Amino acid sequence: MDITTPISEETVAVLQVGDTVTLSGYILCGRDAVLPKVIQLVREGREKELGVDLHGQVIFHTAVSPAGVGPTSSNKLEIESSIGPLSRAGIKLHLGKGALHPETVKVLDECNSVYAVIPPVTALLGARTSEIKLAAFPELGMEALYLIKVDRYPAIIGAAHGRSIYE
Asked: What is the DSSP letter of 48?
């Protein structure tokens, strides 16, 4: 299935574990250093300060560097603990690698959000990334929050509707 951001509730509702998707449009990038800062802004009702609308958005668990982008492990504490709050704030798809805890899979289901795994293919993703914009927290360098424009990123739905591909 080809998915373009922002992602609708209806699109998420039909995704199933094991589905192969391609993502196009603008997606957010962030990992361990920036996600706790984003969550703090959400908790304080200040997410507009990010300069991007979180509703229907994708967050890719990665840093942005001159070498390109590639997934980091989504089950790192700072990353996995961000999935629930960000899903409640409107994120529809979390993109990374690795198994999530059952509690996180349940939260995704409650929020009509999904998790997709992406193979660590930095060169391929670099060729499918056409724009990179620093969105927030520039002091974090490559681990700041970025907004990138992608064209047909390949991914597999890894958790949806209370189920996980890792079960």
From this structure: G
pLDDT at 131: 92
65-114 pLDDT, tens digit per residue, is 776 788 889 999 999 999 999 999 999 999 999 999 999 999 999 999 99
For 51, the domain range is 29-164
Phi–psi pair at 137, nearest 5 degrees: 60, 55
The answer to the question of residue 13 being in a domain is no
Q: Is 4 within a domain? A: no
DSSP count for the chain of H helices, then E strands: 5, 8
Q: Is residue 15 part of a domain?
A: no
Distance CA 59, CA 46 (A): 18
Count the neighbouring beta carbons within 10 Å of the beta carbon of residue 123: 10
Does residue 57 sit within a domain?
A: yes
Tokens standing for 49?
Answer: 């300060």
**pTM (two decimals):** 0.78
Q: What is the mean pLDDT of the chain?
A: 92
Please choose, from the candidates 87, 161, 71, the residue with its C-alpha nearest in 3D space to the C-alpha of residue 121: 71
Give percent of the chain with pLDDT exceeding 70: 98
Number of domains within the chain: 1
Q: Which residues pair with 147 in a beta bridge?
A: 28, 133
**Residue 30: what residue type?**
G
Look up the CATH number of the domain holding residue 151: 3.20.130.10
